Amino acid sequence: MKKFLDFWAMNSKKIYLVLLALALIFPWVFNKPYIMNVAVLCFLYTTLSLSLNLVTGYMGQLSLGHAAFYGVGAYAGAICATRLGCDFLLTIVISAGVAALVGLILSLPILRLKGRYLAIVTLAFCEITRLVELNWVEVTGGPMGISSIPAPHILGFTLKSTRSKYYLIVAITLVTIFIVHSLMNSRTGRSISAIKGDEIAASAMGINVFKYKVICFTIASALAGVAGAFYATYMRYVDPTSFAFDQSVQILGMTILGGLGSIPGSVIGAFVLTAIPEMLRGLMEFRQVIYGLILAIMVVFKPSGLLGNINFKHIRQRILFARENAKKGGGDRGPAES
User: Fold this and answer.
1) What are the DSSP calls for 219-279, one per residue?
2) In-domain check, residue 328
C-alpha cells in the first residue's frame, strides 16, 4: 500500500490526466443508455460528495441535511427552466445563489453548535425542507413535483443527448474540484483546517472561527445547489422524495468511504457507492444490506476512509527530501573513500 501511495504521490498529475482522458473517451466506448446513465450519476454524486466534504471532511462538522440544499437547488433550477425560460448557465447561477442563501441563513444560528447537536439540527432542517417542498403546492407542485423540465440550453445549443449531458456533468465536476482545491490551498482553507484541528487554538491564533465556518457551509450549500440544478434538467422531473434524509445519508456514506478531507477520496467514494448498487441490482433484496455492510466495515476498520488522513503533497515532499539526502550522502562519501 505504501509503494502504491508513493507512486501516486510522485505521478499524481500524470494519473489525473490519464483519468481525465478516460472520462472524455468513455461515452464513445460505452454508449449504452443504461451505462451512460450510471456514469452521469457517478459524476453527479462526486459533486455532492465534494461539497459535503468541505463541511464534514475539511471543517470537521457533521451535517445530515446536505440533501436539503441539493433539493433547493433542484427546485430553483426547475422553476427557472420551466417558468422563467432561463438559459442553463443562468439557472446554475440562480440555483447556487438560492442554495447559498439558504445555507447562509441556516448557518448563522446553528454553527455555534457542535457534534451531535449540529447533526440533529441539520437532520431536522432536511425534513422541514422536504415538508415545505411537499406542501407548498403553488411553487413546488406538492407531491406531483415539477415535470416537463426542458433539457439544458447553453448559448443557443440544447443538450438533448445523454452524451452531451454527460460532458456537462463532467465539466461541472471538474469546476467543483477546482473550487474545492483552490479554496483549501488558500488562506481561507488553511484557516478551515486549523479550525478542524483545534477550534480553541485556532481562535487563540486570531482566526475568526465562526466566520470561516459560515463561509465553508455557504460554499458547500452553493455547490450542492449546482448539482441540484443539473439533476433537475437531467431527470426533467423533481419531487420531494428525491431529497429526503436517506439521500443525505447516501452522500455522507460516499464522503466517509472515500476519505474525509480528500478530493480523490470523494471521487472514489461516489463512484464505488453509485456503481456497486447498480451492479448488485440482481440481488435487490440484499443490495442495501451489502451497502450497509461495506460502510460498517469502513467505520470499524478505517473510520477516516480509504484516502482519509493521506496527504499526497507531504508524501511527495518526503520522497524528494529522502532522494536529496541520498544524493548528498553519496557525494560526501565519495571523496572520503577516495
Assistant:
1) HHHHHHHHHHHHHHHHHSEE-GGGGSHHHHHHHHHHHHHH-TT-HHHHHHHHHHHHHHHHH
2) no
Task: Give the per-residue pLDDT at 174.
Answer: 96
Q: In this model, does residue 333 exceed pLDDT 60?
A: no
Q: What is the pLDDT of residues 170-217, one digit of tens each?
A: 999 999 999 999 999 999 999 998 998 888 898 998 899 999 999 999
**Residue that is written with C-alpha cell 451497502 in the block:** 291
Structural domain count, the chain: 1
Res. 336: pLDDT tops 60: no
* Domain limits for position 263: 2-321
Residue 337: predicted pLDDT: 44
Q: What is the pTM of this model?
A: 0.90
Q: What is the CATH number of the domain that holds 91?
A: 1.10.3470
Among 196, 35, 172, which Cα is nearest to 96's?
172
Residue 137 Cα distances to 134, 148, 240, 243, angstroms:
7, 16, 11, 16
Is-contact 264 50, C-beta < 8 A?
no
